[in-house]
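Practice problem: Aquaporin
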Amino acid sequence: MDSLSLLQFPVGANISGGHVNPAVTFGLALGGQITILTGIFYWVAQLVGSIVACYLLKVVTGGLAIPTHGVAAGVGAVEGVVMEIIITFGFGLHSLCNSS
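Answer key — structure tokens:
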């Protein structure tokens, strides 16, 4: 089972309401689809889940070095941050426009 299949369960089963990314939660909170307090609770749950997943990965791999990702050759750090902001904005806007 790959990570995309695992991601489909909370989204498709309507457990999280599709809040699998803090940027989505932020966009929905800004758009008034959820309250700010609910958004904060979702953020805490998302961040705690991420921390637990990192520790679980460390335990499962026996502490092996885990490869990290970076920007492509020829792309600077500032360019990478700007692109991340643009993509995150688009992702949040898409989620906001397609929420019921």
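Discussion: The radius of gyration is 16 Å. Students who identified this feature from the tokens alone can consider the problem solved.
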